Amino acid sequence: MGIRAEQKEKTRRTLIDAAFRQLSAERSFSSLSLREVAREAGLAPTSFYRHFKDMEELGLTLVDEGGLTLRQLMRQARQRIADGGSVIQISVKTFMEFIERSPDVFRLLLRERSGTSAAFRQAVAREIQHFTAELTDYLEEKQQTSRSYAETQAQAMVTIVFSAGAEALDMNEKERAALAERMTLQLRIIAKGADAYNKAKRL
Fold this sequence. Notes:
about 200 residues; mainly alpha; 9 helices
């Protein structure tokens, strides 16, 4: 990558980080203006258009990055699982750490999942599908079950996880710990039921 290309990528990154910094419980992406993001990034508003067509394109980039960050963390969790430990317990711990460290990233995914922009809703849906597909791959391999069955189990688990994540955003540390225990139990019940059902099908 040449110097000009590196500088362009660095400036683009600055705009993305500036937008993420301005998100909060009180401020959604839709309330941000191009001028605000550019000012936070230390750039002239006209510089914005060298990197993004408009605010929607920037927003879609944030959604993609948020989803990718979460998936990467869960991949790391699976690597930790390979070294020994409870699959569900480690996964829940990793997810809750993500909520604690990057609440506004997860809040972005939740808000845009049911927002007014069809492009944003579709982008979040794709990220959830990617998340579900990776979990499906893992369940299919570990449980030696059919793809469709593993996918159904993965969908149920992802629904519980995202619902719990929404609750966790406004909880204190003690409440989050209790929520993590409840989520762990719920996921274990699904896993046990799936295992029992899978065995019954083979009889």
